[in-house]
Amino acid sequence: MFAGRLRRVLTLLLGLAAILGACVPQAAPTQPGPGGITNPPTTPEMVDAIDLTGKNIEVVYWHNRPQRDQELIQSMLDEFNRTNPYGIRARAEIAGASYNDVYNKINAAIQAGQPPDIAVAYQNQAAFYRNQGAVIDLTPFIKSKKYGLTEEDLKDYFPIFLESDANPQFKGERLGFPTQRSVEVMYYNADWLRQLGYTEPPRDWKTWEEAACKASDPANRKYGWAFRHDASNFASMVFSRGGRILSPDGSAYVFNSPAGVESLAMIQRMFKNKCAVEIPVGERFGEQNRFGNGEVLFVFASSSGLPFYREAVEKGAKFNWDISLPPYTERPAINLYGASVSVFKTTPERELAAWLVIKFLGERPQTVKWAVNTGYLPVRQSAKADVISAFERDPQWGPVARSYARIFDWLQYAMVESPVAGYDPVRTIIDQEVMSRVINDPNVDVKKLLDDAVAKANEILRENAPRSGR
Q1: pLDDT of residue 13
Q2: Three-state secondary structure along the chain?
Q3: 92, 185, 253, 229: which is closest to 403 by C-alpha?
Q4: From residue 137, how far is each of 126, 182, 342, 355, 409 by CA, in Å?
Q5: Closest by CA position to 240, among listed 146, 334, 371
Q6: For residues 100 and 116, what is the distance between their CA atoms, to the nearest angstrom?
Q7: How far is residue 429's CA from residue 442's CA, in Å, rounded to a whole number?
Q8: Which pLDDT tens digit goes with each residue over 166-209?
Q9: What's the distance, Cα to Cα, between the start and end of the chain in Å?
Q10: For residues 29 and 21, what is the distance between their CA atoms, to the nearest angstrom?
């Protein structure tokens, strides 16, 4: 009952946000100002014409990282402040403990007319901001001859990282730029798996389900799989069976395909046969802790969690563990996670200063430092060797450094869930009305659940489609 009330409140708030968003100035460029520059600039030449001399602009960056990472970010920004020739001063601020916290704070700031200069945002969140006219297309800044990236720079970025920011709802506009990425991998207890008679992690779902059920012993709190209330787990399973969450052109949700049905039916069987354990939403990091204590065999989670899983195992059962690609049917697939950094509409000068901060954070020295200290993937290919080498020299990483190195080989299989506006409430539907239903009801019709969820998701997609003039 509480979950139903929560969904109704969420729907009401989203509707209110959409109504209020109609009152917000749009991102359509204003009439040209001095030098023929619109706000935001729409061509590289306009960006080239911006003069930052003597402006001494301050750029505020909202993010969701803990205090340790806040200090790391600010140390890099301090270097930018010392070295940029325009007197730009960049300052980082913790805007919440999660991406949702930042998202909610930004939406409130947009309505108040006081957004930050830049902020972390998933592609679907950036699309929601764009539909309110609040974030800008970075393409002219990237292509600027004076302030942009060279062809050599662009080729140095991992292509899939750049491609994931081209938004299908807005004709390929780049509503963010990558400074970090991770992928969803399978964490597994290698010692336990060997005890069960397996010499390598399962490569197909049938073997994976078999191993998970062999491992399960509910009487002793042992389970094959830790179920997280995370729509990305479901997406990874769909991808690995050849399906998609959203159609390639962004026009419709399609996760009620055979791949979706097979994924959901497997989850239903896992709970019916007591081969999985639910991690309650209130049990923060429960999957990490239970894995570290040797209570679960498999967890699907972000590769950025590698340092935390290492710590959990060292504090817990101290066993050999590793990561691998998720199981698959015909072709491997891996879910690419990617909160980028978006620039909010202010003035051409402030927007350019904000872009220069993002550009700096993506340079090789910064992306190496960020990856080494956080476990995220660097965004530049030239940084790969430095990061891997740093992990190999760190005795705390041990063989996991080699596992991290393999992730770069898996990027060729990367897929993105849904970069369109309104995906956050769709994720809630997938969790609460689909995944949560099957773990508690062994007889519910999985195809009908998915069909109903897709119908609701497509209604949300229509409600959040770009409106004329935006």
Answers
A1: 44
A2: CHHHHHHHHHHHHHHHHHHHHCCCCCCCCCCCCHHHCCCCCCCHHHHHCCCCCCCCCEEEEEECCCHHHHHHHHHHHHHHHHHCCCCCEEEEEECCCCHHHHHHHHHHHHHCCCCCCEEEECHHHHHHHHHCCCECCCHHHHCCCCCCCCHHHHHHECHHHHHCCEEHHHCCEECCECCCEEEEEEEEEHHHHHHCCCCCCCCCHHHHHHHHHHHCEHHHCEEEEEECCCHHHHHHHHHHCCCCCECCCCCCECCCCHHHHHHHHHHHHHHHCCCEEECCCCCCCHHHHHHHCCCEEEEEEEHHHHHHHHHHHHHCCCCCEEEECCCCCCCCCEEEECCEEEEECCCHHHHHHHHHHHHHHCCHHHHHHHHHHHCCECCEHHHHHHHHHHHHHCCCCCCHHHHHHHHHHHHHHEECCCCCCCHHHHHHHHHHHHHHHHHHCCCCCHHHHHHHHHHHHHHHHHHCCCCCCC
A3: 185
A4: 10, 23, 9, 11, 30
A5: 334
A6: 16
A7: 19
A8: 999 999 999 999 999 999 999 999 999 999 999 999 999 999 99
A9: 38
A10: 17
CA distance 25 to 121: 20
Place of tokens 């009305």: 433
In this prediction, residue 330 has a pLDDT band, given cuts at 50, 70 and 90, of very high
Residues near 447 by beta carbon (within 8 Å), at least 6 away in sequence:
256, 261
Question: Omega of the bond prior to 40 within 30 degrees of 0, cis?
Answer: yes
Cβ contact 275:212 at 8 Å? yes
Handedness of CA 100, 105, 111, 114 (dihedral sign): negative
Contact 106, 119 (CB under 8 A): yes
* CB 371 within 8 Å of CB 378: yes
Closest to 177 measured CA to CA, from 347, 421, 361: 361
| Token pair in block for residue 396 | 């705390």
d(CA 177, CA 153): 13
Pairing of strands 182-189, 296-302: antiparallel
pLDDT, tens only, 265-284: 999 999 999 999 999 999 98
Q: CA 157, 243, 103, 72 torsion: positive or negative? A: negative
CA distance 285 to 302: 12
